[in-house]
Structures are given as C-alpha cells and as structure tokens.
Amino acid sequence: MAIVTTSLFGDLYFIPAPGAVTANERLEWLTDLEESFGGDESPLESRPVARQRLGYDLPALADGVIQRAANALVGGLASLWAVPVWPEIQTIGAHAGGFNNISIDTTVVDLREDSLALLWGNPDNWQIVEISAVAADSITFTPVSAAYSNLKIIPVRVGRMIGSRKRPAKHQHIVVRAQWEVDDVENIATTVPTQFLGNDFYTDRVVLPSAMPEHTLERDLQVADFNLGPTNFYSAWDHNKKTIPQHRMMHSLAEVRAFRSWLYRRAGRYRPYWEPSWEHDLRLNDSGSLTTTITVYPDDYEDQAEIRTHIAIEAGGVWYPRTITTVTPVDADHLDLTLDTSLGGIDASTVTRISYLGLKRLDSDAIELDWLGAGNCQCDLKIKEIQP
C-alpha cells in the first residue's frame, strides 16, 4: 500500500519498511540580531515555531515492498507523506487484536492528540492510526483488529520529501535515501528556569566541550586608512566574544527529550542564558560568614574588573549568581569584592569554587541531531559567549 487514507490529513504516501538505525534530524529557527555600536545584541524572534527535517535510509527492502517503494516515489515526490520517526520507536511486545488503547510512555516521544502513530509488526502487518487521546502512560486511537507478535509503536509526522531522491538501479540492494520537511511540527512549551538579570541561569552542564575544542575569540576592529601614511585602529565593542564547540551525547529517549526542551527554550540564537565557566577563576581568601563582601586573592583581577563583573559562587552544592559592584584592594594577598546581593551568611568553608559567569547563546539557528540507534543520539553545536 503506497497510499494511506486518514481523516486528519487526507491521503498520505507511505513506504511500509523500517528505517535504518541511524537518522538525522534538523531543527531550525529564525532570529534577527541587531548589534549595537558597543557589541550588545538585541534578538528578534522571526519564527517562533521551529522547522523540522527528518532524514534516513530505507535499506534492504524485501521483494514486493521494493515495487511499492518505486511506485510511491514516482507519484509522491511533491505530495504529503506519513513519516515515521523511527528513532523514537518503542517496543510493546505481543498484543492480541481488537484494541484501541495501549500503555506507552508518551513523555519521552512526540505523541499528540490529532496526530498519527504507526503500529508496526512487519512489512505485512502494520497500521497507521489516528490518536484521539493522550495520557502520560497511554494513547487512545483508531480501533485495530489485527494481532501482533511483537508490536512496536512509532510516532508519525506529516511532511513532504525535499530535494531529489536517490536509489540504486539494482533493486535487490535497494536503499531509498529520503529527507522530509515536516508539516505538523511540535511546539514544545518550555518552563522558565531560575533567572539572573532577566535571563535564564543554568547550573547543570547541558552541553560539554568537544573532544578537542578550539575556542575562537572575536573583537571588532575598525581600520581608518586613507592611504596617506598614518593608520588608526579602534574597536567599538566593549568586550570580546568567544565561540566554543560543544557536544552532547544522549543515551535514552528521556535524555533526548530533555535536551530538545532545552533547545526549544533557546529558540536558536534568540534566547541567551547565563552559565558558569565551571573553573576556579577566583580564589577565596576569606573565612567565617559571607554576606555582601568577599575577599579573594588578587591574581591581577583588577586588570579585568571592569569587564568581569558577573560571578557564580558554589557553596554546599548551591550556586549563587552575583554582580560585583565594587573592587577594593587591601594588600598583596587580599582583594575585597562587594556584591550586589548578600550571600545570606554562608560559611566560607563551604565554598568550593568561584567561577566567572558568561551570557551565552547558540551560535546558529539550525541544530542537527544525529540518531545512532537504540535511543542514542548526539549533537555537535557551537555556543557563543556574548557578554562576560
């Protein structure tokens, strides 16, 4: 069957074959960034809902399915398709026929009311159903009469094939390589985390440095050269900007779901966030109860005091984001820092590190997720620090 008829979306093309273990997913937002003379950014969210692309191979198709696939590709290149999200597959096991409800964890995959799901046994025993109700641990859908010896459930998106499709001429080793632009994109409602100076503040490392990270430092440099001999240089930016390659490896659908929510909260380059450097940037030289002033070793901090005014203090497993308002030299080993908000009397002995805070954002509106199979997924991305 190359065409599936639904009441929600009409006729949809579909190839009844399981996708390859590996797959690629692309999420893309659209942000307009206005940059001030001093380098500060004002983002404008031009596309509040991400665009989504899914791409995977349909390898080693069995005879019979091969012919269906060929016919579907001939007629369906410009049409709507039922696109199973094979990386989000969940196995149910044996199931008797005659049912319209099944227990499944819906919190880790994209199963929604008025959307589709694929009930899969094999290329000859499957059905695309319309979901009418979703709970955290179950879905209700179109009645199913067939029984399954090893039932699997896969979310189904609706989309169109993009670009040209390639398939080998020798059908006994056919691989259909396809990419779809999704129409019914999920819009994840994200929660607002802890705030600092009007932006999100995270104390869990969502992404980690790549294996061999190469940081890129940027600084606006203007050159005034009228070919008369002297040349003048100046920078309008108040501070450097730094780009850091990052990596995230996920080992379950739950981890992928949490990371996806974080990405939707970022909305591409639109929403920045504060994050500690995770380094021991300032060395505490204090004791007793800490309130609005802390004493640190100087370590030439005064040279950068006008730029590095935001810090995070970790004490007793809690992070305290603060702004340094005044720097007062005491002697060669003591530098007093006055904070905008009291630390509430925490004991200096509980402080494990003092890190600089950086205001960061994604460096791109487009993010790619590489699915590796068995719920494993990885993402390489770049983070830009736009304000120290």
Folded structure, characterized:
The protein has 388 residues and is mainly β. The model has no long low-confidence stretch (mean pLDDT 91). The chain has helices at 65-76, 253-266; strands at 3-6, 10-13, 23-35, 41-59, 80-84, 90-95, 99-103, 116-122, 125-135, 138-144, 148-161, 175-182, 195-196, 199-201, 208-209, 216-218, 222-225, 231-234, 241-250, 273-276, 289-290, 293-296, 310-315, 318-331, 334-339, 346-347, 351-362, 366-373, 376-387. The protein has a 23-stranded mixed β-sheet that branches. Strands 1-2 form a two-stranded antiparallel ribbon. It has two domains: 3-17 and 61-182, no CATH class; 188-388, no CATH class. Strand 3 and strand 4 (41-59) form a beta hairpin. The relative contact order is 0.16. The chain is 7% helix and 52% strand. It contains two helices and 29 strands.
